[in-house]
Amino acid sequence: MPRQKTKFKILTAGAVISVLSIFMFQSSPEKKNGNYTSLVSEPLILDNQQIEFSHTDDNEDETLIIKTDKKHYAGQSWADIYISITNTTNTPQKSAILFYFLKDKNKDNMVTIEQRKNNEWRYLTFFKDNIKIDSSALSAAIKKRETIPNTFEIRSGTQLDIPANGTTYLLARLEYTPNTGGEFWVEALGDDGAYGLLDPVYGTSASSDTKPGWFGKSGTVWTNRKRITIDHFDVVGSSSFGDFPVLINLVDNDLKHTNNAGKVASASGGDIVFTSSGGTTQLDHEIEGYDPATGELIAWVRVPTLSTTADTVLYIYYGGSATGQGQQNPTGVWDGNFQQVYHLDQDPSVTTDGDCAGSTFEVCDSTSNNRDGDMNGAMTTSDKVQGVVSKSLDFDGSNDYIDTNYGPNLAGNSFTVSMWFKTPTKVAGGFIMFGSTADTGTQDESMSIGFSSASCTVGQLLFSVRDTDSTSNDTLCASRVDDSAWYHVAVVHNPSGNNTMYLNGTIHQSAAVTANSSGSKDFTSYDFFLGGNNGRGTAGDFISAVVDELHFSTGMRSSDWIETEYNNQKSPKTFYSVGGQESFSQSGGPGLKIRGGVQFR
Description:
By secondary structure, this protein is mainly β. It has 3 domains: 25-203, ntegrin, alpha v. Chain A, domain 3 (Immunoglobulin-like); 216-335; 338-554, Sandwich (Jelly Rolls). It is built from 4 helices and 42 strands. The strands form 8 sheets. Strands 25, 27, 28, 30, 35, 36, 37 and 39 form an 8-stranded antiparallel sheet that branches. β20 and β21 (282-283) form a beta hairpin. The longest helix has 12 residues, at 559-570. The two termini are 32 Å apart. Mean pLDDT is 81; it is low at 1-41, 206-210 and 586-601.
């Protein structure tokens, strides 16, 4: 059947538009924590593809939720953009859909736009250049407009009806100057005040993934795999990172155990393998969590080179041997700079809940240093709570703490500490982490992150450090963060430069290091506490807080590394995209059977 064009009055300067009523796919919106980022558009089922809409952004206060099937569209000179727009209000919205491009990229634009109607694509009338909207009819939506940089201009658009609590699907063809790229904005304005905005990117993005091989080991060939593409626009800076631990967080029916109609052979996820883009070189990974019933996988993968200029391609394999040793290598994920890595996802009341190399500890260090932690106080199973990445530990502020027995040997070197935490409102004091030596004299070495009204204003986050020759500390005080929200904090100590504190990926405070903390700091013979102050061996200054993913490294992590780490951990689903399942053809060698087309988490 030929495609049919829906008729509109043309929108030009001064024109007023009437829009035909059209049928839309329906989905019920679900608001969560004041934000619709978790709202899922119904997958768009085509003859040979299932399109899922994985990319959206912080759309709090928006009621036209725009999603695209990708964040970054790679190609030489064109791309097809799948778009879903969901009206979360209880009233229909006659809507103007506008596309913005950089003013200096005057050849970049949408050239067609189609709408899915009655299981077929139909062209919509498309407006280009000199577009003006009816500011009177759209006045309520215009009042909600977010700022779009003045380097952008409206270059094209269309209009359509979106019913109450309904979703419409669009397919736009983008064409641009060959071998270039940029950013574009999609804006939706409804006549009853609904509004939405989204900014994907496009352009050429090379990778080394050409005719990838197929992974096999010890006579076993893995039966299934999926391609994971890390968007280089989320990797901050101009230089690539080496041995970067990337968080992979998926919920995928194919990753269920075979007993649950999935494709994973081992109930522990032991047959899961990650490789580089060539498809055969195995990468170190650590599974933090796997649910064989739901297909949820939380894993850390050491990526040898994480590029800032080209997308990084990995493969996840599954369907290998169900017996024998698991394929993960946790200590290999964390390079020699990592001194201690605590996921804090273990049950604090169960010895070796996380294995801890078979020892008697409750909290495990994932590095080869094995600085595992002992639970103290009255921590129970209920103190294992949901965190940012997976599970986390809830310290009660009364007597809960973890004693890691031995801390890192910094020996005057620089270091970086990062973690996620949240505290109740108006926290009085206490330390998230504290290390101190038990010298016989009045001087000792110490390092801490927490809250102290003696050093900072109540509610301000404190970072404090001093060396063995000092009686005073170098300190940084952040703004108040005791508001029950999750924060990512990173502190960097440069003995010959600055102490710097980052909050949620950006620099928050920085001050020059003084003689108080420029010398040696060796904690290898002394207790290192999480949740309190070791006070030269005596616990105190307990904190009421939930803590997740505490990572301790020697060396100064760059601001780009810290922001990339934050991007990856805060929103894994927008950090990468996941392709459809590819299956190994036994008769044709590593020929591929691709099921489901392109799929994005």
